[in-house]
Design goal:
Layout lengths: L1 H6 L1 H19 L8 H24 L21 H23 L3 H24 L1 H6 L3 H23 L11 H26 L4 H28 L9
Helix pairs in contact: 2-3, 2-9, 3-4, 4-5, 4-7, 5-7, 7-8, 8-9
């Protein structure tokens, strides 16, 4: 069973992503003019990023199109590290900052998140320019760590905002709550394992299997929760201008 899950891990992940996207597209009209419409577009963005990353992986040495790599002038072009670094490690952080600023009612919290995001953009840009080779040939630990801090900050500020408002009385009905909890669970479970592997340089096969299975089940739970929330929850507030 474990070997089956590991062998089909990419397809299973894509399947749950497509499920969440399908539920989002079906529910798009229901959530029109609310922050959820941006969330649904982000699900589409996620699917496209994964599709692009898979395509680039086929161009990588050892990939399906390895015999055609002589046509490619630069090695980094057919590596997918820069793709995920730009559109996932950085792009997703910017989206979640934008999204949470739309649903957090406390202006001070929104400003804290906004300033932190600008600091993230500046620091990541400078770091990437200095260590440009790292950006093209591996996953930048600095960018991923800083991005994780921004996302967790956004989630924590949202939870504090809920605790300080009347929303706490009906939080279990809020689609924002389920999205935030799912995202929080995913980052809390997967990120420590990722950084532990990066810093300790673990080559243990069993640990790598554990890491991949943990990420797979976290993806299933997160995207499954997104799909259920989109189907069963109701719209809440209009977009903040």
């Amino acid at each position: 069973m474990i070997d089956f899950l590991l062998a089909h891990r990419p397809n299973i992940t894509k399947g749950v992503e497509l499920l969440a996207l399908a539920m989002g597209l079906i529910s798009f009209k229901k959530f029109k003019n609310t922050p959820i419409q941006y969330f649904i577009l982000f699900l589409l963005y996620s699917v496209l990023v994964e599709l692009g990353g898979s395509t680039l992986k086929n161009l990588h040495p050892g990939g399906a199109l390895e015999e055609y790599q002589y046509l490619l002038k630069y090695r980094f072009f057919y590596s997918n590290y820069w793709w995920y670094g730009l559109f996932w490690t950085i792009g997703s952080v910017l989206f979640w900052s934008f999204f949470f600023q739309k649903i957090i009612s406390n202006k001070t919290y929104r400003n804290i998140l906004n300033i932190s995001t600008y600091a993230f953009i500046i620091c990541v840009s400078i770091y990437t320019l200095i260590y440009i080779d790292e950006f093209f040939y591996t996953v930048s630990t600095f960018n991923k760590l800083f991005g994780s801090v921004i996302i967790l900050l956004a989630i924590v500020l949202y939870f504090i905002d809920v605790l300080q408002s009347d929303v706490i009385l009906t939080f279990y009905k809020s689609i924002y709550f389920y999205i935030s909890m799912s995202l929080f669970f995913w980052w809390i479970v997967t990120m420590p394992l990722y950084f532990y592997q990066k810093f300790v340089l673990i080559e243990n096969l069993e640990y790598i299997k554990l890491l991949r299975l943990t990420r797979l089940f976290s993806n299933i739970l997160m995207y499954g929760a997104y799909a259920c929330a989109l189907v069963f929850c109701k719209p809440e507030k209009p977009l903040r201008t």
